[in-house]
Amino acid sequence: MASGGLQLLGFVLAFLGWIGIIISTAMPQWKMASYAGDNIVTAQALYEGLWMSCAMQSTGQIQCKVYDSLLKLEGNLQATRALMVAAILLGLVGVFVAVTGMKCMKCMEDDQVKKMRMAVFGGVIFIISGLAALVATSWYGNRVARAFYDPFTPVNTRFEFGSALFIGWAAASLAMLGGAFLCCSCPRRETSYPPTRGYPKNAPSTGKDYV
């Protein structure tokens, strides 16, 4: 029962992390314009994501523009896109594999060993998915921080971390934690010992001695 609860907890955490990775990938707030220092505060907020750039007016109206050409994008942005998409696809595979190995499912009930291996394999896939998302978000955040502290970067073009980065970091951590729980949910094999042989009981004495 304990391993089943740990397995269910791991799947829920990994699934929530996978959903968070999808949300982070789709959000345009990967970096936002900084108004720190001597920057002039304007009446709009600028955001940039993996797929589009947006401007939010003070009235609350948001205008977004999808990037026109894939080939004109920076190589770092293309690599970040690829890692996030790979994390989503791996998470999708991990969902199907882990569900097959869940104890509460009736799939593969006749072979419990393979069923447990499927759950562990699903956990490994979730860990790889979380690592891909973690690398992508950390790499993107590192580039934002380096550009922010670069003295040659114009003040009016500096950006800070957007909310999508924080969601991506949290989602990647959940995916890896849930995958680790799935990998640890497999119960250890108990060492089986041969049954102890009983010694024959002595026949009760009849009180008669034979010569």
Helix content: 40-55%
In round numbers, the mean pLDDT is: 81
- Strand-residue fraction? 5-15%
| Straight-line distance between termini | 64 Å
Per DSSP, the total helix count is 4
CATH class bucket of the domain at 4-27 and 75-184: Mainly Alpha
Summarize the biggest pleated sheet: 5 strands, antiparallel
Rg measurement, Å: 29 Å
- The largest beta-sheet arranges its strands as 4-3-2-1-5
In sequence order, what are the helices and strands, one letter per element? HEEEEHHEH
Shape designation: elongated
Q: Structural class from helices and strands? A: alpha+beta
CATH architecture of the domain at 4-27 and 75-184: Up-down Bundle
CATH topology of the domain at 4-27 and 75-184: Butyryl-CoA Dehydrogenase, subunit A, domain 3
Give the uncertain stretches in residue-range form.
none
Number of distinct beta strands:
5
In short:
53% of the residues lie in helices and 10% in strands.
Explain this structure to me?
The chain is of the alpha+beta class. It has a domain of 134 residues: Butyryl-CoA Dehydrogenase, subunit A, domain 3, CATH 1.20.140.150. The chain has four helices and five strands, in the order αββββααβα. Strands 4-3-2-1-5 form a five-stranded antiparallel beta sheet. It holds the Pfam family PMP22_Claudin. Keywords: Cell junction, Cell membrane, Membrane, Tight junction, Transmembrane, Transmembrane helix.
List the helices and strands and how they pair.
Layout lengths: L1 H25 L4 E3 L10 E5 L3 E6 L4 E5 L8 H27 L10 H38 L9 E3 L1 H22 L27
Antiparallel strand pairs: 1-2, 1-5, 2-3, 3-4
Helix pairs in contact: 1-2, 1-3, 1-4, 2-3, 3-4
Subcellular location: Cell junction, Tight junction; Cell membrane
Membrane topology: Multi-pass membrane protein
Keywords: Cell junction, Cell membrane, Membrane, Tight junction, Transmembrane, Transmembrane helix
